[in-house]
Amino acid sequence: MTNTESEFEGIHLLKGNYAAAYAARAANVQVVTAFPITPQTLVVEKISELVDSGKMNCEFIRMESEHSVMTGLIGASIAGARTFTGTSGQGLLYMSEPVHWAAGTRLPIVMSIASRGIAPPWNIWADFSDVITQRDSGWLIQLTATHQEIYDSILMAYKISEDPDVMLPSMVAYGGFILSHTSKPVDMPPQAEIDAFLPQIPDQGWEHIFLDAERPMMHGALIMPGDFYQEFRMKIQLAQIRAKDKIKQVSKKFGEKFGRYYGNGLFEEYNSSDAEYIIINCGEIAKQMEIAVDSLRKEGYKVGMIRLRTYRPFPSSELVQAVKHAKIVGVVDRATAFGSPTGGPISTDVRAALQDDPNTRNLTVVPFINGIGGRDVLPEEQRGQFETLFHVLDKGTYPKTKDLMDKTYWTGTIDRRDS
Amino acid sequence: MGDWRNICKDKDTRPEVQQYESWKELPPIPICFPAHASDTGSWRTVRPVTNYEKCTKCGFCYLYCPEGTIHEGKDGYYHVEYDYCKGCGVCANECPVKCITMVLESDAQEEIMND
Predict the structure, then answer these.
(1) Which domains does chain B have, with CATH numbers?
(2) Residue A295: which domain range?
(3) d(CA B86, nearest CA chain A) in Å
(4) Are A131 and A171 in contact (CB under 8 A)?
(5) What is the pTM for the complete model shown?
(6) Interface residue B74 vs chain A (CB under 8 A)
(7) How far B64 CA lies from chain A's nearest CA (Å)?
(8) Could you say which of A258, A275, A292 is where a domain stops?
(9) Contact A24/A84 with Cβ under 8 angstroms?
(10) Number of domains making up chain A
(11) What is the mean pLDDT of each successive set of 10 residues along chain B, which is 115 residues long?
């Protein structure tokens, strides 16, 4: 690509946050509401800059809180607009109530999340715990690993969310600072090709809801227990289940059109098809784990890694197929789910998913938690996670290290009195 | 019942949520028209009553009503839709000529009966 005329086409060095802003521009979003919060602020700051300089044609509304940010987008989306915003950590927590409302109203809002640790103590660095708090809201959740993937995932998110069989909002998450504030080349396709890839924004609003001043209507009004409340919630779960196939299809179409594939859209496999030891990981540290896989492969260990991209809907049956030949499975979380069976959200889900199939029911799943609050995770630490799997499989016991707490390895834990 | 996608576009053919027989036919979210959902019911304590001899048709009550229950009639006067009025009294408070009084529901009912 040598297109130097446009800053929006071809390969450009972009911060992760700018990749998110440029993707929103490329998706022709019509309404963006904004409230600043580290490390997301650059997303909406860039959009405000683009709108101000006439390079982006959308309604940019400054709000007084994240709660209002999402409420504003709900209003805009009900009116039929394509909508976008970004948030992080505490902002997402404050937004939580309308986050659930957006999914319940089945609005195809897309939101980028520069993930950060939850306070207290204050923390602004990479940690998916913020997204995990909205896990059960009904939103589709993508965990991305590269700058390019942020850009591509936001484009794909509109196509998935606006599908009439899905009609659920999407979050596209990436690690705060590690991706949000570092720069990498991002290849942006020509606008005409993006326009052809994305669905048309309907003139009359989304199929199930529309604004017509002549015929005012209410939505989401009170439903008595004996009426269809349970059934409307069933429809959200049904849309989540259907979304799995849509994600696969959209990811495939995206690859065919733009030449970039992200596994099957649900997860990306790295040397796992013949692996005996498989670790399921997510986000940018999963991308880095490829180094550990390569070095162990060179030494003859049959290791592999699966990078989970789609956290909701959770790809249970697909994961069963992807790990059923393994002798042992490890799951790495860069997030906490306090009080859950493992303390890590994804490892808990993986155990539940593998339990569902006789081929994987007896697999040992070793939970790891690392990099909490943006702590560095180096390839050596990730190599150590595989070595723990070797030990558990060989000896049949969990090695007692300083990192072990109630059958979960919190790797990288500081213990200067280590005996 | 047919496809909700068709039903959704037309007020007259759209059924009430309660009329559906299977959840599979339901639209993704419950939608209803205000007439069926925001009816005030029987709990209103006081209602606004306009003295049309004093009314100047200024439209303040129409502008201030937080529920949008006041409409301009063909006669140019403003009328309250009591089905939706919550009896908050904002209109009576804002009326510049003080031609709206808040009347106890029991008294208003009695008056209607006597008429």
Answers:
(1) 4-37 (no CATH), 46-114 (3.30.70.20)
(2) 267-410
(3) 18
(4) yes
(5) 0.88
(6) no
(7) 19
(8) A258
(9) yes
(10) 2
(11) 55 63 82 63 91 96 93 94 92 97 90 76
